[in-house]
Amino acid sequence: MRRYGKHTDEDDIRSRPNRKGNRPRTNIRPKHEDAAEGMVLTVDRGRLTCLVDDRIVLAMKARELGRKAAVVGDRVALVGDLSGNKDTLARIVRIEERTSLLRRTADDDDPYERVVVANADQLAIVTALADPEPRPRLIDRCLVAAYDGGLTPLLVLTKSDLASPDELLELYGTLGVPYVVTSREELESGDAVERVRKQLDGKITAFVGHSGVGKTTLVNALVSQERRRSTGHVNAVTGRGRHTTTSARAIPLPDTSGWVVDTPGVRSFGLHHIDPSRVIHAFPDLEPGTEGCPRACSHDEPDCALDEWVAEGHADPARLYSLRRLLATRERKEGD
Predict the structure, then answer these.
(1) Which one, of 209, 204, 303, 304, lies nearest residue 259 by Cα?
(2) What beta strand segments (E) does 217-270 contain?
(3) How far apart are CA 175 and CA 193, in angstroms?
(4) What DSSP character marks residue 185?
(5) b/e string for 113-126 if b means 16 or more Cβ within 10 A?
(6) pLDDT for 231-287, tens place per residue?
């Protein structure tokens, strides 16, 4: 039996509706060549605050990006309403290639990797000299993450009015890490702020530190008044600080071309994701000596060629000690 007459027309034929819409499927995706460039400043429950030119634009991630997530510091391409007006929402359609990536895990046994910031030039490791006591193992772990992620480390020592920085500076002197020492009095007078600011000019700097070390206090002193946040205090019983920053946030430095990324205080810095073979790249004086190392050498075993390299006078023995101390951080607890 014929369902239709002899003279049928396309309009006479009913098509079965597609539950996902009648548009035919295609693997071709729009290139969004007219998309605007922006920088992610904050991420909050699926909404991303971006800087597009001189406007603050709220955006969401496009479905076509799949599981790929944008993080603070990412350079992104946006389409849609870019006016920045209230109740408007743009769409992030592309995440540009990253130049650096700071990552951490909750602990060394946790395979889940947390991205702290992308495209940062520098990692400022903020450590109090007292109240709370400095934790060299945590500093070591931050250094390893910086070297692995392509960031230049900067050591910022606070509260020098309570304790001397000499012992800590001696420990890290052989690494050649630049440092700034500050005190509460210097922060109030502005002298310490200017010294830190010189290290940040023209760079994107992520600030990382144990809770209570004065990280947010320092960031508050660096940025303008209207961007300031609350600061916490150290618990007199536990010796631990209170988290005052709950999510990473990129903040422009006034009167400079630099940026500060304030991150939540950390109590642990896992290195499950770190490939130890990449840490050697931060030691250019030792790296040539690894050519004679056995395959998959840990650089801390009897057959390691670095011992002979140092014995021949090509590098300072203290540098080899520093390298091996950093490589051993995954086997040690941060409070050791």
Answers:
(1) 204
(2) 249-252, 259-262
(3) 24
(4) H
(5) eebbbbbbbbbbbb
(6) 444 443 334 444 444 589 999 998 888 999 999 877 778 787 787 777 888 888 999
